[in-house]
What does this fold into?
Amino acid sequence: MACAVALMLCGGAAAAQEISLGGGSLRSRVLTVYADGFAQVEEVRAGDLPKGQCHLRVLDVASGIVPESTFLQAEGVSVREMSVRAPMTDPRSLLTSRLGKTVKAVRQDPRTGEDRSETATLLAVEPHPILRIGDRLETDYPGRIVLPITSDTPVPGAARLDFVVESERAAHRDLVLQYLLPGLRWQADYAAVYDEDKRRLTLRGWIGVTNGSDDFFENVSLRVVAGNVARVAERPGVATFRAANKTISEVGALQQPPAVAGYRLYPIAKSVSLSAGERKQVAFIKHLNLPVTRSYRIVDPVGVFRSAPGQWPQRGAFLRLAFVNPPGGLPLPAGVARVMAVRANDADLFLGEDRIDHVAAGAPVAVQLGRVVDVTYEAQRLEFRDISRTSNEQRFSITLRNDGDRPADVEVTQTFPGQWTIFGEEDLYTRKDAQTVAWNVTVPARGRTNIAFSVRISSGG
It folds into this structure.
């Protein structure tokens, strides 16, 4: 969105006063982007308001503006009415905006081939332009009409806001304009390098902002909000998000995000330009070296229903890396973490990626990166016995195998339906919630470990 332009039509019915505010009137613009696919725009414009009622026209507003979200405020100023006009996207609309005003009539000299221009007044547009040039009228001008760039020239593709405002006194004032705009979003991305020998993880974090709207934002203060705000419903016909396919560039360093009513506000850059369809990234964690714990996870290795098979084939366990976001550091917004393994004298190896939720400073983080081949398991049901119409007893065996050259810490979790009781090895598991238990075992290097348990399950019917 180019530099904002405003036109004020003020005064009484007999003689309306026109006051134009050009690009120099724009003091600041703040763009706050939400992960849900929209942004909040706040602009501060300075201008002279006379006492009484005025018609305030604001041009060059983002084309996808949500009109109902528009809010204008200034000290001692009341807003009486507001309307929105659709973007001007064709030459006819631009000509209409110059009715009764001065334009340039340009035609080519047939003898020299040079352009010659005359000052004209545009009297009509439809069905054909009518120009007054000096002491004559041109109804079929053999040339082209050139519109001058002035402070009240509408920007093609931009919407327009019209306000009726009333000022308590004549004064030079700051006008604050706020509105919502669909089509922008942001996402956090993390790049981590895992050093297996040192048991350390180097973490870098990026915040990427994508402008999927049709508007250009120049020299704006950029912020993003962590958290998902409530929206009542999508309006029909608003601009939809379109994926960006532009060069990615680093634009600055992130500051400490303040908390606002439980959300986190991340200031990105004090001055940045964001073109339509462009994606920009900012590094907010540049080099965070942390101790990391490697473990493996197995989820629901057996089925407990009657129709479940009696044996399950060998499968790999999930690799899991855990670390703590340092106390006093930055809260980590939700995003995708991609992990590489550093290898001496060789290229790094991609281990996998996982989506993490919002993580407070001092809180633990765990990423689950896919199934491995060195740590595996196989399971079988040794017995199934009905003890009543609604209850049964089952016995299972789970064999864990570690083909690596280091011990493997493995967490095995299993969920059960209805009412259940494990018996026989109660001291070897922990209850995680009403339906889930976990076994935490260490499988020796190039060794095996077995988990055997019996469970009584009742449907309660």
